[in-house]
Amino acid sequence: KQIHQLTAVRKELTRFMLSYKFGLDEINTKLNILQEEFEHIHDYNPIEHLKSRIKTPESILRKCQRKNISITQKSIKNHIKDIAGIRIVCSFISDIYKISEMIQGQQDIKVIETKDYIKHPKPNGYKSLHLILSIPVFFSDRQEEVFIEIQIRTVAMDFWASLEHKIYYKYDGEVPAHLVEELTTSANIANQLDEKMEFLHTEINEAKEDKHAESKLNFLP
Ligand code: 0O2
């Protein structure tokens, strides 16, 4: 009897985790379409790279304990909204908002929550745009809504966040004050770089548009 029970639990867990995998597959397809469309039509790709991940059952349980969430499928599904996550890395800050609008404009996607840590950075300097989305997944016998967390950031924000994440884990959350200070300073430097790059990007685009308008004028009799 116990073996039957265990098999049933394992099947249930597999179905649960699969729903997130399918949700991620759907969003990844949408993002691939956007990328290809941009490359072919606009001759430009706002996405530098993207990465998706599904939290392991162990990490889900750890988060439940940390946040005092009861360990039932329903409660985990409703309270842990980053079981499936995608990180989109762009070259320029303006691309972040363009991509966010394109995603939010898709009919089958519901936006549950937006956290703009670019306009309102965390005290340590963390910047990124977070969206919690809900997307329908169609199974053979039912339809399910799953939450997906999308983090959109620039290359510089990503560089900073991955180093900060490593340092945070190395010191088990108790990062020495001088390192916290250094990290905040480097977040400011990363931000300055982003602003400079955005400025150059706008200049280049304006120059391109002027050239385009000029060549149109040359066609006039
Ligand atoms: P991992 O390993 O990247 O998945 P919650 O999601 O409920 O724990 P909160 O505050 O509601 O917490 O979520 P928030 O602020 O949207 O942050 C969730 C994720 O954003 C984190 O996931 C990180 O990936 C990233 N993040 C947030 N703050 C920081 C930060 O200060 N530094 C870095 N490097 N990343 C950050 P996880 O689950 O913590 O980690």
Give a verbal description of the structure.
The chain is of the alpha+beta class and 221 residues long. The chain has a domain at 2-155: Beta Polymerase, domain 2. The protein is built from 6 helices and 5 strands; from the N terminus they run H-E-H-H-E-H-E-E-E-H-H. It has a 5-stranded mixed beta sheet with strand order 1-2-5-4-3. The radius of gyration is 22 Å and the shape is flat. The N and C termini lie far apart (88 Å). Bound molecules: ligand 0O2. Residues 82, 115, 122, 124, 126, 130, 161, 164-165 line the site of ligand 0O2.
CATH homologous superfamily label of one domain: Beta Polymerase, domain 2
Mean pLDDT: 91
Series of secondary-structure elements, N-terminal to C-terminal: HEHHEHEEEHH
Named CATH architecture of one domain: 2-Layer Sandwich
Query: What proportion of the residues is helical, as a percent range?
Result: 55-70%
Which percent band covers the strand fraction? Answer: 15-25%
Radius of gyration: 22 Å
At the fold tier of CATH, the topology name of one domain is Beta Polymerase, domain 2
Low-confidence stretches: none
How are the strands ordered across the major sheet? 1-2-5-4-3
Shape: flat
Number of helices: 6
Number of beta strands: 5
State the separation between the terminal residues, measured CA to CA: 88 Å
**Small-molecule binders:** ligand 0O2
Which class do the helix and strand fractions yield? alpha+beta
Look at the structure and give the CATH class of one domain: Alpha Beta
| Largest pleated sheet | 5 strands, mixed
